[in-house]
Structure formats: C-alpha cells, structure tokens
Amino acid sequence: MFGLFGKNKPVKIRSCNENSKYGVAAKNMKELLKKGCKILQLPLAGAHVCLYSDGTNVTEEYFATLPDHTELVLLSREQTWGGVVCDISQLLSTDQYASGLIEAAKSLLSDETSLKKRKILTDLLLNLDDRSELESRDEDEDWFKGIDIRFKTKSAYMKFNCENRIRGYMKEVTDAAKAPQVAKVRAEFLKTSQSLAGMLKSARYNGCYFDRTEKEPNRLCTQEGWFTCQGSFDMDVCQSLHSINPYSSRESRIVFSTWNLDHRIEKKRTIIPALLNAQENHKSADINLDYFYCLLFTRENLKLVHIVCHKKGAHDLLCDTKMIFNQAKNIKWKRKHTDKGKQVAYKRSLI
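Above: the chain's sequence. Below: its structure in token form.
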C-alpha cells in the first residue's frame, strides 16, 4: 500500500552486532535495503531484513503490513538472527555491557511498580553485580559483614563453613554413643566414633569441598566459585539447573547457607542405626570404618543440593551389608560357623 501511494514507512534498523538504532523511511524493501546498507556499511548483495523481536524474515508483502517504527535487523548474506534472545546471548557472553546494564536495571527498578518485574530486575542486579574475583576482606568488606574478623579471605571462610557442616555430622555420630544400653556395646561404639573423628580430623573435615583455591578433584565449585546443584538423591542431575556463586556477594553467601549437603543413604535413618546395630555383637575393630567414613563425610554419599531439590522424605536406600564389617573379620566369623571342608572351599573361592 505504501508503495502504491508513494508514502514512506518509518522503521528502525540496526545490525546484529551493535545496539545502535537508526531511523529510516522507505517506500519498499528495495529502498530500505539500499539505505540501510549504506548506513550500516554492509554489502547490498545478499542483504536481508528480519524482525528484531523474533527473527521473522521480512518480505516485500510483509513490509507493507508493518506498523510504523517497527524495529528491524539488517543482515549480510551469511548472518542470521534468532530474535531478542540473540541480544541476551551476546550479553551473557561478555562483561562489556555489565556496568551499563547495572545502571539501567537500577534506574528501572526505582520506578517499577510491578512486583514480578521488580523481582526479575532484583535477580538481574544480584547476578550482574558480581565481585567474585575479589578475595580478601580489604577488597570486599561488604561480603564479610557478620563474619568473625579472623577470616581474612573468602576461601578461608567458605572452607570453615564446610568444615562446620561436616563437624555437625560427626557430632550426631558421637551423640549416638549414648543410645546403647549395654555398657560394653556403648564403650565399643565410642571407640568407633573416636576412630571416625580421627579420620575426619586428618582429612581436615573435608573443608576443601567449598574452597575454590583447592585443586579441581577436591572442590565442588569452579575456580571462580560457582556451585551447581547435583539434583535430589534419586536424580543424576538437577532438572532446574540451579547454580550459585557465594563468592560473588554477601547476599549470595547467605542464600548458599540454605543449600544442603544431602546424604543419599540417610545419616539419621540408615547409616547411624546400621552402625549401632553392627556394634551390638562386634568390637570396634570389626567395623569397616572406611565404609562408614565415606557414607557419613564424603562426596561418595553426599550431594550438594538446592533447598528445592532437597527431598526430606525417606530415601529408602540401605547400607551394603557386605561392606559393614572388615573382610578379614567377616571370613573369621564365617569360618567359625562352618565345618572344616567348607572352610577350605571358602578360602579357595576367595583366592
């Protein structure tokens, strides 16, 4: 219609690599391409136009139906545009626009009345205002608010934070020593708990899990401090792709405290009761301490999970009965309950 009556349609054009927009008035696509390529310095041969919003290709017929001031993207032959998501992708791939985005988000937030939009802007600001590259108290004083002055670096505090959680697991084992009513059993369980405590102390309470300065196999985070939810006990991965960097800000550090180191085989319902049960008729030396240590305090049985992925119901996973006792003690105990011929056959099968 515009072409028929010789009227110009005003639109806004931009390239796929820059945010700058230019106003152009054209009667048809041919004129738009000619003017646009001149402004953006693109070769006219093979040039094409898409809607900025969703990447729809603009034909001559479609151009005639566009509202005035529609935002378009002018592309060269080999370029493509998938819509506004392309801009988001570019923003995520570089820190070039971070400071500008922060200021823009703050400005929008101050005038925004929609609770939903305020939440989106707040979350955006939280993730954009990333100070994870700062490590010491002197560099990022705000991060250390409420933290004892003895901690001089973020990594030192995060390590302590992990140690504290795992010390709590050890305390539960120690407290369980009061459960056995028979004094002899209680004494043997106390020996077992003391041995586990010694093993844990030697491993420095596995504080390395939260310490980004540790080597990769030992830490649960990236070198920058990003942690990823490992999913609930019955899932291989987190379906919601939860992630957090507690090193980035004070708020993220506090939110991270709600994440759990969850025991796949449950500590209270399964592991400690199995340990108590094993101790009823066995000495501390008979117990496979390595097995229980792994279940209680290591990544072999622990999963880092977002609070939403932490299922508090029964896990219905049991300890491996073949692993509860030391193998040598198992063999000795079995031999006492077999005749001589069976003892020889059992020994040969082990070899």
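Confidence is low (pLDDT under 50) at residues 328-351.
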